[in-house]
Amino acid sequence: MTVKRSRSAARMLTVFETIAHAQPVGVSALARLLEADKSAVQRDLMTLADAGWIRPAPGLSGQWELSPHVLTLARPPHSNEGLRLRAGPVLERLRTETGETAYLAVPDGHHFVVMAAAESHHLLRMVPAIGIVIPLHGSATGRAVLPYLPSEEQARFLGAAPGALAEAEFALTRERGYAVNDEELQPGAVAMASAILGHEGAPVGTLVLTGPAERLGIERREAVGALLRDGARQLASELG
């Protein structure tokens, strides 16, 4: 039997997520972002405020932000906790051996989320915030995991069935064990990623190394990629 969904609850969750991304933000701006009725958004705001999930932004009249109450939920899912704990020493080792920021990303619906990181000590460095969303399209993480997804999922993420060029890139990624984003999402920044594969061969996370292009030049990438690949395989082995 099909269970009927709650539209009002779904809308309120959307309002909450939009505040998280746009804070501090007012009701008019929220209504425009959501293309929703302003009075309905106002009701959702007041419900969230009464429940303690949002609060008026200090010193900004009519603006809202998340309250510290959200931190009570800021724990990783049980199924990811083992991976996060095991990844800590691997991330530290990657940072030490490369000098760059290393982080762990795990799947969350149609994208990945940063769960843990070891930040570079360089003054100029890339620093992904814990919880930041990584899109699959175009990112090093996306390129690392797409070769291991079923063909129908590949088509869904790419918008069409992968062509010969994409298939060749998938084969190269599987062969060398890592993928590269070379300044394509952010000028001056390079990211490299290796998929952590579960026991059925599906990606359960990625190890990512990121830094300025001047320090992650082509001459370093094979060695850095090997470190990422070995770290991902170690974690896959430990997870069983």
From TrEMBL:
Signal peptide: none
Keywords tagged on the record: DNA-binding, Transcription, Transcription regulation
Keyword Nucleotide-binding appears in the UniProt entry: no
Matches recorded under InterPro entries: GAF-like_dom_sf (IPR029016), HTH_MetabolicPath_Reg (IPR050707), Tscrpt_reg_IclR_C (IPR014757), Tscrpt_reg_IclR_N (IPR005471), WH-like_DNA-bd_sf (IPR036388), WH_DNA-bd_sf (IPR036390)
SUPFAM superfamilies the record matches: GAF domain-like, Winged helix' DNA-binding domain
Ranges where the IclR-ED domain occurs: 69-240
Protein name: IclR family transcriptional regulator
Source species: Novosphingobium album (ex Hu et al. 2023)
